[in-house]
Structure formats: C-alpha cells, structure tokens
C-alpha cells in the first residue's frame, strides 16, 4: 500500500476508517524515507527504532485491530454470552498467602 496506494488482497473491502489509517501509514512511511528512518530498496527496512516506536507502531497497532475485527472465528472463539458474568481472576498459587493475610 505504501508504494502503490492499494491493497493487493482480493477480499479486502475498504471502509472510510481503514482507508484513513492506511493513508496515515503511507504518510508515516514517506516521512520515514525523508528522515532516513526507513529504507525502501530492495524492500522496506526499518533503520530507526525510535521512528518505529513513535510514528509507525501506533498506526500499525490500529491497522491490526481493524484486521482482527474482520476475523469472525476469532470473535466467536473469544465472545461470551452477554448474560454471563465476568468472574474475578483465580488467585492460583497466591490463594494461601492472600487467605493468611485476612
């Protein structure tokens, strides 16, 4: 996308939000090239971890979230019925220690 402005996946269906984040990623990669934080020949190579942490990582995390939301199997596997309460986490091996403190 950063080079050609299009996604090469046949089943990809763009939304305004996904297009916006992809444009932001493309702009960040262009900035990375200008700042010599990214190299593009023969392929994209990160040259600055600081640039990645501050500019690319937040954008890529948002893009991954879009992708994860498209995975029906993932949503089904991690979904819980709305009427099912969320129980407190089990104390596991710390249970005897927390009981002794009471």
UniProtKB/TrEMBL annotation:
Chain segments carrying region Disordered: 82-102
Stated name of the protein: Uncharacterized protein
């Amino acid at each position: 996308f950063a080079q050609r402005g299009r996604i090469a996946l046949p089943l990809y269906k763009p939304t305004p939000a996904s297009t916006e984040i992809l444009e932001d990623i493309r702009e960040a990669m262009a900035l990375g090239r200008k700042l010599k934080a990214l190299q593009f020949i023969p392929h994209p190579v990160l040259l600055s971890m600081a640039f990645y942490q501050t500019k690319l990582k937040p954008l890529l995390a948002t893009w991954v979230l879009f992708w994860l939301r498209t995975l029906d199997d993932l949503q089904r596997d991690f979904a819980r019925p709305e009427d099912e309460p969320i129980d407190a986490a089990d104390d596991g091996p710390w249970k005897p220690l927390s009981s002794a403190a009471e």
